[in-house]
Amino acid sequence: MQTNHQNKIVEDLLEFVAPTRCIMCDKPGEVLCEDCIEQIVCVDPASNCLACGAPFGRVVCSECFDMEFKTDICLVATTFEEPIPRIIKGYKDCYERRLGDIIADMLVDTFEHALVCDAADYEVLTHDVVVYVPDTARAYRRRGFDHMEYVAQRFCKSTNMPLVDALVKHKARDQRLLSREERLDTATYAQYEVVQEVAGRGILLLDDVVTTGATMNKAAAALKRAGATRVDVLALARVY
Ligand SMILES: [Zn+2]
Ligand SMILES: [Zn+2]
Question: N or C end: fewer C-beta atoms under 10 angstroms in the chain?
Fold first, then answer.
């Protein structure tokens, strides 16, 4: 077991051999420099679509008015523009933990800011327990870590909210191989399995990117089938 002191020596040595550079502009010093942090486009939680997080004002927006969401509130931190895609890629593919810290801290800031600027809508989120959308077992083996697990752990440490490791993601089964009855019963080929008790709980589901909402819907459907009373989403970025 390495001591903190030994870890610090190793870190200092690595820093000497290969100094940290900004993942966006290559400037030495930080993994993401001040100038590039300023490029992040935050979504104002007082004026986003509560259903999908899109930043078009406090209405159910044109992006999602005909969607059937299994989720309740969806709160997102940013829009999916640089440097956000680079941050996520650098974190997932290189397991650069400092980028995971940045992601978790952005989620914490968004959550706390939402409560300050619009407590009437967001106060309900504080009653929830935190669950994250996991990788498949295969992705986990390839990368050797679950990127959202680490983010969720840090988020819960900062917010003092309880973390429940409730979801397991299975590889999607080929629907062509299923019988008609199996296809009609969505639970049969559900990708997400709930492996912890969530009945009667409100869930704050953490995810990285909301694109069509299909992933959060599948995960939320599984959690609600298992008895969750509500499933709210807090995601880093919204693609729209
Ligand atoms: Zn930079
Ligand atoms: Zn919307």
Answer: N
Alpha-carbon gap, residue 222 to 226, rounded angstroms: 6
What secondary structure letter does DSSP report for 47?
A: S
CA-to-CA distance for 54 and 45, rounded, in angstroms? 10
DSSP states of 104-168: HHHHHHHHHHHHHH-HHHHGGGGGPEEEE-PPBHHHHHHHSS-HHHHHHHHHHHHHTPPB---EE
Q: Which ligand is nearest to the CA of 62?
A: 2
Question: Ligand 1 centre from 9 Cα, in Å?
Answer: 26
Q: Which ligand is nearest to the CA of 20?
A: 1
Beta carbons of 32 and 41 less than 8 angstroms apart: no
Residue 229's domain is classified under what CATH number? Answer: 3.40.50
31: domain range?
1-37
pLDDT one-digit tens code per residue, 197-212? 999 999 999 999 998 8
Distance from the alpha carbon of residue 5 to the mean position of ligand 2, in angstroms: 49
d(CA 114, CA 126): 11
Same domain membership, residue 11 and residue 31: yes
How far does the centroid of ligand 1 lie from the alpha carbon of residue 109, in Å?
21
Question: Rounded to two decimals, what is the model's pTM?
Answer: 0.87
Q: Which two tokens stand for residue 49?
A: 């679509």
Distance 197 CA to ligand 2 centre (A): 30
Structure confidence by residue, pLDDT tens digits, 140-187? 888 888 999 999 999 999 999 999 999 999 876 666 666 666 555 555
